[in-house]
Amino acid sequence: MEVPPPPGRRARKRQQTRDTLIATAAALFDLHGYDAVTMEQIAAHADVAKRTLYNHFPTKDAVLADWLEAQLARDLADLQPRIAARRGFRARIDTLLDASAAWCERHPARLRAYLQHRMMNAGAAAGPGSGGPMDAWRLLIARGQDTGELDPALCVERLATAFHHLYFGAMLRWLDGPEPSLRDEFRAITDLFLDGARAPGEVRKPAH
Question: What sequence ranges are listed for the domain HTH tetR-type (predicted)?
Fold first, then answer.
């Protein structure tokens, strides 16, 4: 397999600028709160022209999205030993969702802005290997199929996408009114994902 060449000087410089902008914005969000920070402040504190900032990020929400998704990938990597130590699909996904709920409950303003950004850019779905929640759903679902907890005849990608929509829906409902808790919302979507919406006693008919 051919190893791709390292990025050139121009690409490295662009990535360094992008990283500086994200780090500066994150520090300002922590200091002043997300809603109070402006794009002008981010540019000024990063010591770049406003045009440079807008060349990298069209909106403040886009800066937040890049920062949050990188943070999420790191958090998911840190969670992997805890998740792997749990037995069964339900216990593993509950571990991940509990950690997600804890972060969301600490940062509701950032969560709302991120979800709005994602809904405006719905076509930019994360592919395999991105390190985001879709990768986590794919992995846990595949493990559940290997152990016989989930139907191995079903497409992993389709199941992961369905759970991803349930996950985002739970967060949106919670933001509209934080009762029940986000953990309870996540428990409810996992129940729905595992048990479906059939009435008790109904027998599932095979699809044709």
Answer: 15-75
